[in-house]
Fold this protein.
Amino acid sequence: MKPSSKKTPIQPDWVAKTSAGALLGLALAIASSGLLSLALGTMPLPVRGQLVMWVVPPVWLGALGFVYLFASGLRAWLWLGSLNLISWGAFWALQFLHPVGP
């Protein structure tokens, strides 16, 4: 006898999932590059600039590819929106606590 586990099937709402991955994925990628820039603050600027610039495409494309595994477009928007709020909140908090510059 199988246990009655009711799983939500993946719904094919491609427009909602794609727009969530494209818009919120880009915002998440930019926030993660900002956090990486703050974490690598002692590194010389040319090297740090290249690292934070090249971290954006893998994070963005990873989010854009992963978004199709969500059960619905609404869940994709909610999860990526929450991750964006956390990432941008951490970025602004860390930037406020440790300002960069003279």
About this structure: The mean pLDDT is 89. The radius of gyration is 17 Å.
